[in-house]
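User: I'm writing a short report section on ligand binding and want a predicted complex to refer to. Could you take this sequence and NDP and write out the structure as tokens? A short remark afterwards would be nice.
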Amino acid sequence: MKNTIGLYGLGVMGANLAKNMANNRERVAVFNYTPDLTEKFVGEFSSQNVEAHYELEAFIQSLETPRKVFLMVTAGPVVDSVIRSIIPFLDKGDIIMDGGNSDFHDSNRRFHELNEQGIHFVSVGVSGGEEGALNGPALMPSGDACAYSLVAPILEKIAAKVDGKPCCTYLGPEGSGHYVKMVHNGIEYADMQLITEAYQFLRERVGLTVEEIADVFAQWNETDLKSYLIEITADILRKKDDETGKPMVDVILDKAGQKGTGKWTSKEALDIGAPSSILTEAVFARYLSAMKEERVHAENILSGPKAVDDKMDKDYWINVVKEALFMGKICAYTQGFNQYRTASEHYGWSLDLSEIALIFRGGCIIRADFLNKISNAFKQNKELTNLLLAPYFIEKTNRYQSSLRKVVMKGMESGLSLPCFSTSLTYYDGYRSSQSGANMIQAQRDYFGAHTYERNDKEGIFHTNW
Ligand SMILES: NC(=O)C1=CN([C@@H]2O[C@H](COP(=O)(O)OP(=O)(O)OC[C@H]3O[C@@H](n4cnc5c(N)ncnc54)[C@H](OP(=O)(O)O)[C@@H]3O)[C@@H](O)[C@H]2O)C=CC1
Ligand SMILES: O=C(CO)[C@H](O)[C@H](O)COP(=O)(O)O
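Assistant: Sure. The structure tokens for the complex follow:
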């Protein structure tokens, strides 16, 4: 009997996706570039639904037609070289899926190049890490809708489920699925940075211990802040280092790494004119964190405000920080979904923002209860220009904006760097201001470069002889 799907790439994600498919009664052929990972996979997982292959041609020929090949390999040129290697064994109508964190520009190109050869290409954004890949990731597929309908039964089966609905929906043409995954990661960066700033404020300004902050996060996870990232933050704060007995978080070097998807989101925001400032500030915060040696040097040279030793009411401030964090998250998700809307218009993709929020409810790193509210907001008003203007978010921001202000002011006053909290507030205040100050910029542009301006009292294009 032929296999229903082929999984190429048995690294961290690919191995677990193959197990997930087999556990869901798909007959999976597996292949890896080097035999070592295939041997490791076969050694740790045995299932009558898995057939391991060490020859590429035999792997492809073991698949029922139209053949469905799922690639889970390192993003970038590797994907192109793998596609080139399997093409000779494929027939017209076969389907290649790419589940890696590929740049959507590459996915657009691959979609069209393969289309010309009669091969369907489905971009599949995958989120959920190692555990999600095994037990149910969030999947963001795009490409040819007919091709998707052929792989949908498998993808929807292996995806996470929330309220019985798979966290997997066809999103749009070309590489739009990888675009959705990219911005998901941009939002992920912002969410992580906001949580980090809440933690820093509670520790350095309010004076809570690591253990107390773990309890605070665990308690927040019982509220409207409930989310995977809040949950794991509580777990992280409880973990002690075996060697020193110190909290794990205190022995980890404060230099953040990154693989690039957050940066791509920001570059793309600049290209299409989406004001994703909080997402971008989170990328810059990682860059600044990576300059550890310079920061250590500067600490002894550059002055800040005098140490403040006012006693802060712990219970009062825990609640203020909670509301500030929720407010920051609302602004960050607003920017991410605004970027989807702008990209959808820019590329002509017709992305359904309500469906994207539904996919994110389970399996993925940014899964959170309040994605239901985001989904409802876009479902109730398809023309919604900005999430901040949806009734639920108007009510929340009206209540929480003053808390974000309090945390930013207290933090700034004491010299605490709060890049995403402060940028959230700046974005919120900027968006709700009918008067922006850009009239001055227009005047300056016209003064030095005769770039012209519009007037607010009559139609037309004007220039002043300054
Ligand atoms: N880890 C995570 O949490 C997530 C990762 N992703 C994305 O999934 C993809 C895979 O990630 P992950 O499983 O973590 O990575 P791993 O490093 O664990 O696995 C990489 C895979 O790519 C293969 N590969 C590398 N170079 C080549 C090549 N030249 N030709 C053929 N195959 C090659 C490797 O095979 P070999 O051993 O032979 O080199 C291996 O199977 C990436 O795009 C990643 O960004 C997406 C979501 C979450
Ligand atoms: O895609 C993911 C989750 O959704 C990966 O975990 C991602 O690689 C994390 O990004 P970075 O390494 O840049 O922090």
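A remark for your report: The longest strand covers residues 120-127. The chain has two domains: 5-174, 181-431.
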